Amino acid sequence: MGLAEGPRIEGHAENAACFTLPDPERPEDAEDAEQWQDRLRGAVCSAYDGEVLVSVTSAGAGGPHTKAVADLVEKQLRHIESPGEYV
Questions:
Q1: Is 87 a residue whose pLDDT tops 60?
Q2: Buried b vs exposed e over 18-37: b needs ≥16 C-beta within 10 Å?
Q3: Which residues pair with 15 in a beta bridge?
């Protein structure tokens, strides 16, 4: 599908996976090249714990944001593992 492996989710190597969408092609035209950094990039992460599935899809302009997406999924999995401790 053209997806590259994204960052690993700490402590959940067996039940979680992240993938990144390919970067947009860099244009040859200098005028378009200035706008290249502002093009959309995306990431998809999925993980499960027992019967609960966490799935996050993100899209954003600018630099890579895949680490932030993986951190969000990791925090959600910690919350699922210890319900009631965050109340």
A1: no
A2: bbbbeeeeeeeeeeeeeeee
A3: none
